[in-house]
Design brief:
alpha+beta, Immunoglobulin-like, 8-stranded mixed β-sheet, elongated
Length: 330
């Protein structure tokens, strides 16, 4: 998935490399995992992503990044589980990353930090990376794994190689996401609130055992002799579908304000899926189709309705405005 960073741009903030002194292991107050919108997905002043009823009716893809907010660098192991609270909000599996990589044709890009320090890399910088004293960038992505279950649950692990990662650019790790993903909001989604949340447990040891969200950190010494696990602060993201004007025309199943062949096609696809058991059809889809696709009001959504929609569209196309009763009487 494309990251939205500007090569050779001066990145605001005090992003200078710094050494990390010996320190006690993290507490939950020292670090946060945060989901933020990226690219053309934006957040409102209330911290939510707002979509119009029309956008939700048509379905849309949203872009997000996961960020570490901390100024310390003793992370040793990072485990994370995210889950959507609705079958209408799912991860786009094709967008999920498989670790730091770059296209074969990629050429090095140059990035400039506020102090004038530059580094060049084919990789897209992200906060599980580091820059050494010679200005060489390393992605630090060893032992990365992920798993996406049923489109609604995503598990991520970085098991080694990230000890200095959160010190990238002077501890300002939250200038760069460490993971990005796309999410799909299904067509016909009704007004309401939909969320991605981090899944964890009451204590870190349980979270580790159940493969939920936690970190293991060291004491920051050269020998790294003490390790402990903790649960960071966790901030998910809320997507709000606002109530508003949508097409309530009988026959307009995709709610674009028109009744045409696209609606008939949607009805036929729905009928075909129902004919093979209806697996994967959401309750919202059932409700939408029976409210707007059952144009002859016989309690079923099938080829008869698709045919009626086509006849209605054809009549409207030549300036004849017929009722549904007239369509099915002809």
């Amino acid at each position: 998935m494309k990251r939205h960073l500007l090569p050779a741009a001066v990145l605001c903030g005090a992003m200078l490399l710094q050494s990390v002194p010996a320190a006690a292991s993290y507490t939950g107050e020292d670090i946060a995992f945060v989901i933020r919108p990226e690219g053309d997905t934006t957040v409102s002043s209330d911290g939510c992503v707002h979509l119009s009823a029309a956008e939700a009716a048509a379905g849309t893809v949203l872009h997000f990044g996961i960020y570490i907010e901390t100024d310390r660098a003793e992370v040793q192991v990072l485990g994370m589980k995210l889950r959507s609270d609705s079958e209408n909000l799912t991860f786009v599996e094709e967008s999920l990353e498989t670790g730091a990589s770059y296209p074969d044709e990629a050429v090095p890009q140059t990035y400039t930090l506020p102090d004038g320090t530059q580094f060049s890399t084919k990789f897209q910088p992200y906060c599980l990376g580091s820059i050494n004293s010679k200005g060489s960038y390393s992605p630090n992505c060893s032992s990365f794994s992920q798993n996406c279950s049923d489109g609604r649950e995503l598990t991520l692990y970085w098991l080694s190689g990230i000890e200095q990662a959160t010190a990238f650019a002077g501890g300002q790790s939250d200038w760069f996401s460490f993971y990005t993903f796309d999410a799909a909001l299904a067509p016909g989604t009704q007004p309401g609130s939909y969320r991605f949340e981090f899944q964890t447990a009451a204590d870190a040891e349980t979270a580790k055992a159940e493969r939920l969200t936690y970190i293991t950190s060291n004491d920051g010494t050269v020998m790294k002799t003490e390790y402990s696990s903790t649960i960071p602060q966790l901030r998910g993201i809320e997507i709000v579908v606002d109530a508003g004007e949508t097409s309530s025309l009988l026959g307009d199943v995709n709610h674009d304000g028109k009744i045409n062949a696209a609606d008939a096609t949607s009805v036929l696809i729905y009928a075909a899926r129902m004919g093979t058991g209806g697996d994967g059809i959401t309750e919202e889809e059932h409700q939408n189709m029976h409210a707007f696709g059952d144009v002859n009001k016989d309690g079923a959504v099938n080829a008869k309705d698709a045919t009626g929609i086509c006849r209605y569209a054809a009549a409207m196309g030549i300036g004849r405005e017929l009722s549904w009763e007239e369509i099915f009487a002809s």
